Amino acid sequence: MQSPSFTEVLRAYDYPFPPELIAKEPARPRDSARLMVYDRKNDTVTLDTFRNIAKYLPKNSVIVFNQSKVLPAKFTLEKSTGGKVEALFLEEQGNAALILASGKFAEGDTLKHDSGEEFLVQNRKDHTALIYNKKFEHNFVSFLEEHGTTPLPPYIKNSPLNEAERRTEYQTVFANEEGSVAAPTAGLHFTKELITELERNGHQILSITLHVQLGTFAPITEAQWQSKTLHTEHYSIDAKTCRALEEAKKSGSKIIAVGTTTLRTLESASENGSITKPSGRTNLFLREGDSLHFVDSLITNFHVPRSSLLMLVACMTGRERLMKLYAEAIENKFRLFSFGDGMLVL
């Protein structure tokens, strides 16, 4: 049987939706978001509210969050000609900052911020650049905290949130490690009160860190599909969490990944029930037909059509069933994407 073409693959993961279902701000309170629960064993669907998620989770399960914190990563620089450069911080590399940048400029140019700070372009390649300012050597985050703005996903148009609101609303309540340019959005549904309730009910709460990069929004390329690899993101799991995860697997406790970033981290870091690679970079591309060897269940959002995130969820549900679940969610007017409602795949 001939494998489907890349065009056919994308078409298979496409679906129609009313644009008004794209959520432009989070539910308030956060755990009042709606929840679709899909039980794979029994092939059943339950519609509920996120704050009731505890009654669907296996007893004494381990819930794993991604504690990465979104940076106010957007800022504007000016060329010597007066032209504007719209920049998005990606990561620190050595003593310089890697940015995604628009406009024409070259290595050796100086770009100026309206605060008076100047940045030397050390390298320019495709749509990225390395920029350097001695004052912010190894500490570019301090510049962003003062002068940057929080990026929202490209599909959220005309969000009513101002910058102060974005810095709190587009951030999980457990965010702790700065480094992401996008939120691990499955975690946005959790309140501190809900987390406390889950712990009181016997669930263990653990955290890993994966810094979300722009690749999470980028369209899949045919090269990625053929090579079975995605964009690369850095992750880390501390020693105490590694021990807790390994003990949980040995005892038979179910591992619940909160978000696709957490799932990618745990699957990349583990082998035979052990965390063998507690830190590194992952380009893992999970899709229908792939098996999970560490994670048992997933808490996630409703993802954009044709995306790698949608394909990842299909590795748990199968593509055909997933498309039916999405159709049911849309029929029931679930809110979609980053600020939208949630799904629990058991």
Describe this protein with a few key phrases.
346 residues; alpha/beta; 6-stranded antiparallel beta sheet; 9 helices; 29% strand; globular
How do the strands and helices of this protein lay out in sequence?
Elements: H1 6-12, E1 34-39, E2 44-49, E3 62-66, E4 68-70, E5 74-78, E6 84-93, E7 96-101, E8 110-112, E9 118-125, E10 128-132, H2 140-147, H3 163-169, E11 177-180, H4 192-200, E12 204-210, H5 222-227, E13 229-236, H6 239-251, E14 255-258, H7 260-269, E15 270-271, E16 274-275, E17 279-284, E18 297-301, H8 308-317, H9 319-331, E19 342-345
Helix pairs in contact: 8-9
Task: Write a brief structural summary.
The chain is α/β, with parallel strands linked by helices.
Care to describe what's here?
- The protein is built from nine helices and 19 strands.
- It is an alpha/beta fold and 346 residues long.
- Helix 8 packs across helix 9.
- The longest helix has 13 residues.
- The two termini are 32 Å apart.
